[in-house]
């Protein structure tokens, strides 16, 4: 009866938890404004698979491939699995630890002669001049109760850390998707610039031939021929630099998708246009980033973990209760091993009396860590808002430049056609033609760059808005055992409650 009272009291006290309870911050407390400071389209678009908006099957395939084979993602999955095991280990501290032991001993009478001895339970054993057997079985248990909630707070902290690791994985996933799309846009843009340079080089070869004919005919001086040769050489010199940049972008795509740098060169060799998504996308309101951005949600979970650690530190200021118990039996044969059983139960309290202020200093340390986590959370939110607004402005300006360069290209093309016709007819000099050809190449490259910048800004905006993952899920760690040739990836588990409220 007395033992039952001890267990009941321990269980009741274990429900107490010292330290602050975590409360999610409101958008206003985080400094989130009501609206953006730049024009933003209303509504929140579904951007879970934003790469499909570009209608480019090659881009979509590369993004999907990177999600399954990227080495940074594989490391993130491993960290997520480590966080899960830490959670399981902290949960196990809430339960008793039970261990068992068994033993056998053989005693021989080396001098001979009958002897007898008495076992602890009073049984007299006659050796009969031979040996004796002794069998023992024991069972022990210990339970650290955690009457002031140190164990519960530890579980709370590790659970938040596990959820933060899941959101960290999602953040790495978004970063990898962004890098794949960005380098793909760069590669397609460089293909377009190479095409521009080669087209201009072909025209300049024709101009060089015309200038040579006119010099031979005595219609112009050799100055025209030399200017044409110089212009052609300058244009040709840009091609190796563009090829080097193109190779770097394609090599980067290979590594991002978990392959050798040159693995994608055959697949990307065919020239394709720069991918462009629809010009407008629903931005929503600033408060949406608290739900859609995985880096923001990871920072929020880090704050929850730091808050729980304050309770862990505070609980060490109070008594700790430990309960231990054991059961033992000894016998001379297996058949009567249960005849005599002894056991004991012990419950003890320990309390720190003097430690030089170390434990209270540990509490203040955890409080400072929580303050730092709160500041980091606010900073992450503000950086997310900055990313969105910068991407909106970058997209708007790139689209405006695209419209202007389209007009400039049309005018430069007409001017160059007219200039070539006039030069052949002797109505203008080569310097004027050279200027018109230079303006045409500049307009072509300007339009190409503006389109590439618009595509890159669209990618940046999609990622800044938290696109690329299902924001209604908390990524979970997968099992380690997988089929050969596959890469571990978290399996999202849908939850109906926000991560900040999951316990």
From TrEMBL:
What span is annotated as the signal peptide, if there is one? Answer: none
Name the keywords, alphabetized: Lipoprotein, Membrane, Palmitate, Transmembrane, Transmembrane beta strand
Give residue spans, biased composition: Low complexity: 483-503
Q: Where is the composition biased (Polar residues)?
A: 98-107
Highest rank taxon of the organism: Bacteria
Spell out the residue ranges making up region: Disordered: 98-119, 479-503
Localization per Swiss-Prot or TrEMBL:
Cell membrane
UniProt key word RNA-binding: no
Tell me the InterPro entries matching this sequence. MdtP/NodT-like, OMP_efflux
Its membrane topology: Lipid-anchor
Tell me which family the UniProt entry assigns to this protein. Belongs to the outer membrane factor (OMF) (TC 1.B.17) family.
Family matches, as NCBIfam families: outer_NodT (TIGR01845)
Q: What is this protein called?
A: Efflux transporter outer membrane subunit
